[in-house]
Amino acid sequence: MEPGSDDFLPPPECPVFEPSWAEFRDPLGYIAKIRPIAEKSGICKIRPPADWQPPFAVEVDNFRFTPRIQRLNELEAQTRVKLNYLDQIAKFWEIQGSSLKIPNVERRILDLYSLSKIVVEEGGYEAICKDRRWARVAQRLNYPPGKNIGSLLRSHYERIVYPYEMYQSGANLVCNTRPFDNEEKDKEYKPHSIPLRQSVQPSKFNSYGRRAKRLQPDPEPTEEDIEKNPELKKLQIYGAGPKMMGLGLMAKDKTLRKKDKEGPDCPPTVVVKEESGGDMKVEPASPKTYLESKEELSHSPEPCTKMTMRLRRNHSNAQFIESYVCRMCSRGDEDDKLLLCDGCDDNYHIFCLLPPLPEIPKGVWRCPKCVMAECKRPPEAFGFEQATREYTLQSFGEMADSFKADYFNMPVHMVPTELVEKEFWRLVNSIEEDVTVEYGADIHSKEFGSGFPVSDSKRHLTPEEEEYATSGWNLNVMPVLEQSVLCHINADISGMKVPWLYVGMVFSAFCWHIEDHWSYSINYLHWGEPKTWYGVPSLAAEHLEEVMKKLTPELFDSQPDLLHQLVTLMNPNTLMSHGVPVVRTNQCAGEFVITFPRAYHSGFNQGYNFAEAVNFCTADWLPAGRQCIEHYRRLRRYCVFSHEELICKMAACPEKLDLNLAAAVHKEMFIMVQEERRLRKALLEKGITEAEREAFELLPDDERQCIKCKTTCFLSALACYDCPDGLVCLSHINDLCKCSSSRQYLRYRYTLDELPAMLHKLKVRAESFDTWANKVRVALEVEDGRKRSLEELRALESEARERRFPSSELLQRLKNCLSEAEACVSRALGLVSGQEAGPHRVADVQMTLAELRAFLDQMSNLPCAMHQIGDVRGVLEQVEAYQAEVCEALASLPPSPALLQALLERGRQLGVEVPEAQELQQQVEQARWLDEVKRTLAPPARRGTLAVMRGLLLAGASVAPSPAVDKARAELQELLTIAERWEEKAHLCLEARQKHPPATLEAIIYEAENIPVHLPNIQALKEALAKARAWIADVDEIQNGDHYPCLDDLEGLVAVGRDLPVGLEELRQLELQVLTAHSWREKASKTFLKKNSCYTLLEVLCPCADAGSDSTKRSRWMEKELGLYKSDTELLGLSAQDLRDPGSVIVAFKEGEQKEKEGILRLRRANSAKPSPLAALTSAASASSLCVCGQVPAGAGALRCDLCQDWFHGRCVSVPRLLNSLRPSPPSSPLLAWWEWDTKFLCPLCMRSRRPRLETILALLVALQRLPVRLPEGEALQCLTERAISWQGRARQALASEDVSALMGRLTDLRQRLQAEPRSPEPPILLPSAPASDPLREGSGKDMPKAQGLENGDSVTSPEKVAAGEGSDLELLSSLLPQLTGPVLELPEATRAPLEELMLEGDLLEVTLDENHSIWQLLQAGRPPDLQRVCTLLELEKAERHGSRGRGRALERRRRRKVDRGGEGDDPAREELEPKRVRSSGPEAEEAQEEEELEEETGAEGPPQPLPATGSPSTRENQNGLESAPGASSGPSAPFSTLTPRLPVPCPQQPPQQQS
To answer: CB of 438 within 8 A of CB of 68?
Structure first.
C-alpha cells in the first residue's frame, strides 16, 4: 500500500540562511560561502534582509497567460501506472462489448494493478490456484485475514484480469463476453485516456517553446484532428509542406459485414489506409482510444451512410470484391454470416471465431488480431495539455481563491500548510478522486515582463526601482554577473538566462526534475501564498532515478527521459523508504530558494502566488556541466547550448575572466584538449585525412548536432561528402554512414596547435596572480634592500585592479601601505607649507613635539622612498631650537609679557606644539585677564553690566591661579554679590503686588547709586518713579480745571496709573469716579437700548442728522448690524476734543434736531412716491422699497412705517399686537372703537431705542447731577429731555385748544355710546398678557388693565389655554372687520396740519409721551379704518401664536424639570445670587427668564427673536427703566413667543425689566 494522506510524514527541513547586509551585497560570493552546507541538502532557502523589498514591476493590466491543466492523480508515477493499466483493461473489455466495473472489497475499490502484479510475483494464476495461495495474495494487498477474501479475489481476478492477461500473452481464450452484467454493486470505471493528452502545446501568445525541445518537429495533424476540426474536414488535405492530393472520400459498404440488421451503427473514426508492397496494415490514426470512439458513436444519430476517408487504391473492382473472404477458412460463401472488422477490414465467419458468435454483434466489432494489437500498443509520451481559457492575474486569482475556499470550506488564509500538504499527497495517490487544477508555468518574462524592475528604454525608473534593477539578486541580473559563466553566452536562453514566471494555485505542482545542464537555479516568490519544495542532493540523484525506474518500469520503458520532461511525481515518503534523502521547505513571499547542480527538486503551491525563476552557473559548476553533457550523450538528449563552445569562448578572452573562473576554465580546457587529441588520433587511425575548418558557432544548433547522440558539436565533427544532411561527433565516428572513409572528412574549429596556445593563455591568467604577489611581497618587505618609490607601488596596485585579482591579504597590505605613505606625504607637505605661510597660516590642530618625532620615525620605517623626509627633519630642528628659547624666557623672573607674547606667536607659526607652550600660554592669559579687570573697575570708565562682571568671573575661573588672580576674583565676587542683592530688591519693587509709595522707592534708588555697576532694575525703578510724578501732576491739573473732567481723560489716567509699579493715593479716587460714571452709563443703556442693540447709547440720544437719506440711513444701520460702524460722534459732526466742551455739544444737538426734521420730511416724500407693494399691478421688480432683509417687500404681509413711509415685510420686523390693545376690562374701550386699536407701526430704522417714559429719564438726570465726571451721553440726555419737555408743552397746548377739545369730547361720547350698546352673546375675550418679547408701553393705571386670567387669581395662564383663547380672539376680531366704519370725526385741515406736524416731531423723539398717543388716536379717528393693515396684523399674529404653542410646551417641560430637581428655587444662596429684577418680579418674570434661557439653549433652532413692536405710548416701555417715575404702572405680564422672523443680521431687543 502506498502512504495515504494520514500516513504522510513531512521530510526534514532544508537549511535556511539569513545573510547580513554586507554578505547580501555579493550574491554569488554568498552562495559560494554557504555551498558546503547547502549542497548536502540539494536545496536551501535564503531570507533577504528585512528592508530589501523590490517593487512588483509586472504590468498587471496587460499580463495575460494561458495555464496548463494538471490532473493530480496522473502526476504521480505509480498512480499513473495504475491508471494506464486500468485504461488498457477498460479498452480490452470495451472491445469485447462490456464496460469495466471495478469491484469493492472491504469498502474500498479493488486495486486491479496491484492484484495483477502480486499474482505474477507469486508465480501466476495457475500456480496460486494449485497451491491455494489466494489468502496470501489478500494478505499482501493488506486485507484482513479470516474473511474468505482470497476466494473473492480469485473470483474477481478470473472474471476481470485473467482474460486480459491471456490476450496479452497471445492465447485465444474462450471468455465470458458479458462478465459485468450481474455486478450491480461494482463501480463503473471511466478511462482517463492519458495518452490523448500528450504534450504541452505552447500558448498562442508565447513564441518561446520549452528549452531543450526546440528541435522537435510540429506534430502532423491526425485523423482525430480531422474528425474534431470542421475546417480540416472541409479541406480534406492537411499536413506540412506539399499537400497530399491523393486523399479522397469513398462510401464504405456496410452490408457485407452486417446483413439483415436494422440501423447498424457505423464506426466514428476516420480510417486512413495506405498500400505498402501490396499488403494492407492497420495504421492507428491517432492515440484516441476505442472507448472514446464508441462514446462519440453512441451520440451520433446518423445511420451507416457516413463517409470514410481512404487512400485511393490502384486495383479493379473485381480485386476489391475478392478481398472479402474469411481470414480463418479463406472462403467467401455464406456472406450473410461474414463479419467485417472495424479495425482492419478483415472478414471472419461468425462460426469460425473462437469462441463462435451466435449472431452478428451490434455496434463496433474488432477481430482478435486488432484486439491484441490495440492492447499491446505502447503508451504515448505523457505530458500536460494547455487550457483553453486565457487569464489575467486578477481573474486567475479569483478562480484560484474561490477553488481553495470551496475545497477546504474555509477562508484561504486560514487553511494550514500542513493540511494542504497532506491533502495534496492524498489526491496524488488516489485512483478514485480526479482533481484538476491549472498552473501558469514557464511564462517568458521577456514577452510578459519580469516581476523585478528592469533597466530598459521602455519606461523611466524611480531611484528606488533603479537600485533594485541593478541588484545582483534581481533574477534578470544574476545570470549575467561577472562571476557567472552564463554571461559569456550571447543568446538569451529562455529559462536559463531569461527568467520564467510562474502563477500558481493550490495543488498546482512542479514535478521531480533537475535543471538543464545541471545548472544552479534560483526562485523568488514575489507575493502570494507559500510554495512547498522537496529536494534531493546531487549525490543521491542516481539513486532517485533508480528507485523511480524500479517502482514504475512501465513508464520508463516508453519514455527513457521521463524525468527530464517535468511531468512525474513520486511521494517523498516512498523515496525515503527506499533510502533516498529528501528535505522540504515552505517558501514564503519575499524569500529565495536555490537548487544546486543535479539536485532533484519538486513541489506544489499552497495557493494563489506569483514566482520567478532563472538559472545561473558559477565556476564550481564547470565539472558538473561537463558530466551533464556526457549524461545527455548517453540519453541522446538535446543540449541547450554547447559546453565546448562556452569553454572555448571564455578561453579566448582570459583577461576578462575572474581569477577563480580562469583557473576553473583552465582545468576544464585541459581535460577537453586531451580528449580532443585522443579522438582525432582515433580518426587518423581509421584513415580519415581530409579536414576543413568550420565556424560552428555560426551554424544553427540543428545543423551541428550529432545524429547519433544529439550532442551539439563545436570543436570537431565528422561529415561525409556523399551524405551532407548529417554529421556525428568524434565519439560516434562509426555511426555516420556506410560510405567509404575516403568520402568522410573532419570539420574542426581549432587546430591541435591552437588549442594549447589558448590553454597557455589561460594558465598565464590563472598564474598571473602568483607572479604579481611575488613582486608585491619583495617590495613590501624590502627583501632586496631597495625601497620602492610611491609610483612603483601604485603601479602594482593598478595592475591588480586591471587584472581583476581577487581580494587577498597581500593586496590589502599593499593598499594599506599606499594609503599610509600618501597620508605621510600629505601631512609632511602640510607641515612645511604651514611654516612657509607664517602669520597667514590657517589655524588647525597643531602637532606636538612627540608626535613630530613619531611621524619622522613612521616615514623612515615605511617601505617607500619619500623625499619629503628631509623637510620634516628640518622642521624638527627648528622646533627644538624654539623650545630652548621658551625655557630660558620662563626661567627669568618676573617674565616680560611682551616677550612671552612674541614667543607664543612664533610657536603658532611653527605648527608644532612644545611642552613648555602650555605654561607660556597660561602666563599670557593671566596678564591679559588682570588688565581687563583693572579697566572694568576703574572709576573713569563707564559702568559695566552684571553680564560683564559674570563674564569676567567666568573667564577668571579658566585662568591659571596665582596670588594676583585670586585677589582680583575675590573682589569681583564681592562686588557682584552686592549688586545682585540690590538688583533683586529693585525687582521685587517692580513686580510686587503690594506697590510701595514713592518715598520708599526714592530711598532704594539713592542707596543703589553708590554701587559701580550698571543695574537694569534700579534704572527701571528710577524711570517708573519719574512717570509717577508726572502722572500726579496730570491728575492735579485735570482736577483743578474749569469743568468736570471727561470720562475718557479719567479712564486714560487710570490705565496709566494702574500700569505704574508705584503706590498712588490719587488712583483710588479716580477709579471710584470712573466706576460711578460707568454705572450710570450702564443704567442709561439698559433704559434706552434694546437687547443686543446695534446702536450705541450716544447715537440713540442724539438726533439722526442724516434721516433724509434712505440709502445712507439703511446702509449705516446695516453696517452697525455687522459691527462695521462704531463711531459715536460722526452723526453730530463733533471731534473727540469738541465733546469736552458742553457748549459745542448743545449747539450740535440743536443743529441735529433741525437736520433730522428736514431729513425725515424729504424721506417721507420720497417713500410716499414709491409704488405700494399691496397694489395688484405692482411687481417686485418695479418696487423700489427694500426691507431690512435686503429683499423687495411685495404682496400681502407688507407694512408701511408711519414715520418714514417706507415698506417692510411684516415677518422681518416687530409689529403691533391687536390683542394687547383690546383688553376686556371694565374701563377698556369696546371692540368697535377701532381708532384705539394698536395699529401704529414704526420701522426699526425709525425707532432705534426702547423709548422710555419721561419720568424715567428725569430720574437718570437726577443721578447724573451727582456725578463728578462729564459724559457725552449725559449732555445728550439733557438735550433730549429739554427737547421732549418742549414738545410736550406744545402738544398739551394744542390738545387744550377749543377745536381739539371739542373733537376729543365727541370722540369720548362716541366711545361711550359703543360701550353702552348691548353685545351679542359671544364668549368673552380672554386675552393673555403681553409677550416678553413685546415690551409693554408705559401708561397710567386706567390705561393698563390687567388680564382677566390674573384677576381670577391665576398667577400664570397655561400656554395651551392661552393659545386656545388667543385663537378664538383672533377669529372674533376677524369677524368684526366688516362692521368697522369711518372716519368717525371730521378734522378740518387747519386742525389736522398742526397735529400731524406735532405727531411727526413726537415720533422722532426717543421718549414715550402720553400726548403722542392722544394725538395719534385723534388723527386715526379722522381717517377711514386701515382694514388692509388690520388684516395684515391679524395674519402675522395668527402665525406667531401658532408657533407659540410649541414654545409654551417647552417652557412647561423646563419648569417641570426644575421642580423634579428638588426645588432649586428655594435655595437662599441661589436666590441671593439672582438679579433683583428676577427675585422681585414674581412668577411672570421667572417665566420670562426661563424663556430667555430656553432661547439660549435652542440657539438658531428656535423661533427667531422679533424686533420690539411699536404702538401706543400708553402700553409701551413702562417696564424698561431702571427707576420708575411716580404713577408708573408695573402690571405683571406673562411672556409669550412670536414667530416674527428676525432681520438678516439679528438685533434682538432687550428683555423687559420688571419694576420693583
So the answer is: yes
**Is pLDDT at 272 greater than 60 in this prediction?**
no
Q: What pLDDT, on a 0 to 100 scale, did the predictor assign at position 1323? A: 43
Characterize the bridge pairing of strands 912-913 and 385-386: unpaired
Residue 275 has pLDDT above 80, yes or no: no
- pLDDT at residue 684, rounded to an integer: 87
Q: How far is CA 830 from CA 745, 795, 827, 874, in A?
A: 76, 25, 5, 14
- Checking if the pLDDT of 260 tops 50, the result is no
pLDDT digits (tens, 9 = 90+) for 725-761: 889 998 888 888 888 888 889 999 898 888 888 888 8
C-alpha 1212/C-alpha 1189 separation (Å) is 7
Strands (E), 165-273: 187-188, 247-251
Mean pLDDT of the chain: 74
What is the rounded CA–CA span in Å between residue 321 and residue 302?
26
DSSP annotation of 414: G
Give per-residue burial for 1485-1509: e unless 16+ CB within 10 Å, then b.
bbbbbbbbebbeeeeeebbbbbbbb
User: Among residues of the chain, what percentage have pLDDT more than 90?
Assistant: 16
* Locus of grid cell 371694565: 1226
Read off the pLDDT band of 527 (50, 70, 90). Answer: very high
pLDDT score for 323: 62
* Residue 475 near residue 592 (C-beta atoms within 8 A): no
The CA–CA distances, whole Å, from 668 to 739, 806, 1208 equal 35, 21, 111
Q: What are phi and psi of 1505, to 5 degrees?
A: -80, 135
Q: Which residues of 673-684 are buried (b: 16+ CB within 10 A; e: fewer)?
A: beebeebbeebe
| Contact criterion met (CB below 8 Å) for 989 and 1001 | yes
Are the beta carbons of 468 and 453 closer than 8 angstroms? yes
Interhelix angle for 1254-1265 vs 1065-1088, to 10°?
170
**Residue found by looking up cell 621658551 in the block:** 886
How many angstroms separate the CA atoms of 729 and 719, rounded?
9
**Distance between CA atoms of 192 and 1479, rounded to whole angstroms?**
104
Q: Distance (Å, rounded) from C-alpha 99 to C-alpha 155?
A: 18
CB 304 within 8 A of CB 254: yes
Amino acid, single-letter form, for residue 25? R
The CA-atom distances, in angstroms, between 1017 and each of 948, 990, 1008, 1492 are 16, 8, 11, 53
Length of the chain: 1556
Q: C-alpha angle 34/39/43, rounded to 5°?
A: 95
Dig out the grid coordinates for 1385 from the structure.
370725526
Q: Which of 1434, 1312, 1330 lies closest to 1373, judged by CA?
A: 1434
Integer angstrom CA distances of residue 989 from 977, 993, 995: 19, 9, 7
Alpha helices in 1169-1253 (DSSP H): 1218-1221
* SS3 assignment for 662-688: HHHHHHHHHHHHHHHHHHHHHHHHHCC
Beta strands in 942-1026 (DSSP E): 944-945, 1013-1014
The per-residue pLDDT for range 458-479, each reduced to its tens digit, is: 778 888 888 899 899 999 999 8
Helices (H), 184-338: 223-228, 230-235, 290-298, 317-322
Please give the Cα distance from 665 to 759 (Å, whole number): 9
Using alpha carbons only, how large is the chain's radius of gyration in Å? 61
H or E element that contains 727: strand 727-728
**Grid coordinates in use for 56?**
512588483
With CA atoms as reference, report the closest residue to 512 among 479, 540, 476.
Answer: 540
Name the 3-class secondary structure at 616.
Answer: strand
Answer yes or no: is pLDDT of 1335 > 50: no
The single-letter DSSP state of residue 409 is T
Q: How many CB atoms lie within 10 A of CB 1267?
A: 17
Of the ranges 876-880, 1268-1272, 1463-1467, which one carries the lowest mean pLDDT score?
1463-1467
1172, 1194 in Cβ contact below 8 A?
no
* pLDDT, average across residues 1303-1332: 63
